Amino acid sequence: MAVRIRLKRIGTTNAPAYRIVVADGRSPRDGRFIEEIGSYLPQKREDNVTLALERAEYWLSKGARPTETVASFIKRARKSAPAPQG
Question: Cys-Cys link to 16, which of 11, 40, 43, 44 (CB 3.0-4.6 A)?
């Protein structure tokens, strides 16, 4: 099973909103998904992405492949995450 981390559109016409989901690559864009790990609100200027980085890292370790957009969100989240203590 090819698992993808991608966006699922939930917004209305002219008011887009997306959820970041882990889904089987064969399922349609707005169809079935395995887990929801974040959201993206493109009309918001600041803090428009929320992402559970731990869950994204888990799925990446299991072989999930992110889309280009989601990969950029993960990269941005890794930069802003606090450094591990210890």
Answer: 11
